[in-house]
Amino acid sequence: MSGGSHKRQLLGSLIVAALIVIVAIAVVTLKFGATSAAEREALNERQEQRLEAAEERREDAQDQREEALER
Q1: Which range marks the domain in which residue 22 is found?
Q2: Lowest CB count within 10 Å: 25, 32, 60, 70, which one?
Q3: Residues of the chain with confidence (pLDDT) below 70
Q4: Does 45 share its domain with 20?
């Protein structure tokens, strides 16, 4: 293989590799969105807080029902 054709093949391979990386990034971004890890963590934290608050409300309501039955 001559030096010129080797350089062309190397350049072509680099271009194809770059295109694969670009497509992979695009697919992942479309699938998961551009949300940062900090934003996802904050979203998860808010969801957990809402679930905990709902559980506390259920427990309080149960306690109130039990107290009402004891009277």
Answers
A1: 1-34
A2: 70
A3: 1
A4: no
